[in-house]
Design goal:
Strand order of the largest sheet: 5-4-3-8-7-6
CATH superfamily of the largest domain: GAF domain
Largest sheet: 6 strands, antiparallel
CATH architecture of the largest domain: 2-Layer Sandwich
CATH class of the largest domain: Alpha Beta
Oligomer: single chain
Radius of gyration: 20 Å
Number of strands: 8
Order of helices and strands: HHHEEHHEEEHHHEEEH
Number of helices: 9
Structural class: alpha+beta
Helix content: 40-55%
Length: 287
């Protein structure tokens, strides 16, 4: 069948309940704008980069204004600066902007310096080959889960994700698995201060329910997500712990409800997931 490549999924378009870009937080829940160390102009530049990444196609200044919370004049200055620095390309005819290849240099630097990803790759590829299902390595950044490795399943899936995609921590299997290994008070403080949007009708958003879910995952030794992030998606995850028994990431298998039930997933795929997670944890902590 050949060697499966780690990065070959299409671009993600993810939001709260109905798709269309990276989840956007309402309000200023982390207090960045009132921190005197926060440089607003740099924040605006990164907002432009993130919106262009969300849109995923060439876009002109007028349309970009509709997606970013910035004035047209501010966008003109920022896009000009980013183009001059080489992080954006502008079509000379259409005047539309896209991200440039220079952004890949930053992405590569992050991935190549991630020791967990490096240790996990052969184990994840083996799990993907044995199960023929989608296998992911995910890490927590602030209040989100980010995909750092993704081996897509051998069959087409409806969930459109790629390396770099992010999900809310409260409703993803990997997020639950990581929360389960944290001190419960720390986990609840994190959950209480982040947006908890319902991505599907099945998403748990109440703190009382979200307190129970990580505790259940800790007792079971794995986390289960039954269509809380995406309709038609069942996910199971196991956290990876460092030598201090702190969670540093999570391994995840995601399958379609059109081919799997929760019971079948737990019976056939969970044992293989747990073996892979233990092997990765052993390699990470042996060096």
């Amino acid at each position: 069948m050949g060697t499966t490549k780690a990065v070959r999924a299409p671009k993600a378009r993810i939001t709260g309940a109905n798709g269309g870009g990276r989840p956007r937080h309402d309000g200023d829940h982390d207090g960045r704008s009132v921190n005197p160390l926060f440089i607003a102009s740099i924040g605006k530049a990164f907002e432009v980069l993130e919106r262009l990444a969300d849109i995923g196609r060439p876009v002109g200044l007028t349309e970009l204004c509709e997606h970013a919370s910035l004035s047209r004049s501010a966008l003109q200055r920022i896009t000009h600066t980013l183009t001059a620095l080489g992080y954006l390309r502008q079509d000379p005819k259409t005047r539309a902007f896209t991200l440039s290849g220079k952004v890949l240099h930053l992405s590569h630097a992050m991935l190549s310096s991630d020791s967990l990803r490096d240790r996990a790759l052969p184990h994840l590829e083996d799990l993907n080959r044995r199960t023929a299902e989608t296998v992911n390595l995910m890490e927590m950044e602030a209040d989100e889960i980010v995909y750092v490795v993704r081996f897509p399943g051998f069959r087409a899936v409806s969930v459109d994700l790629h390396v770099g995609s992010r999900l809310p921590i409260h409703c993803s299997a990997a997020g639950r698995a990581i929360l389960a290994e944290m001190d419960i008070d720390d986990a609840m403080r994190l959950l209480s201060r982040v947006p908890r949007r319902a991505m599907t009708p099945h998403t748990l958003t109440e703190l009382s329910d979200l307190r129970t879910a990580p505790q259940t995952a800790r007792k079971r030794g794995y986390a289960l997500n039954d269509q809380e992030s995406f309709i038609g998606d069942i996910s199971i995850a196991k956290a990876i712990l460092n030598r201090q028994r702190e969670p540093i990431g999570a391994v995840n298998i995601a399958v379609s409800t059109s081919r799997w039930t929760v019971e079948e997933t737990l019976r056939q795929l969970l044992p293989q997931l747990l073996v892979t997670a233990r092997a990765i944890e052993r390699d990470v902590n042996a060096r």
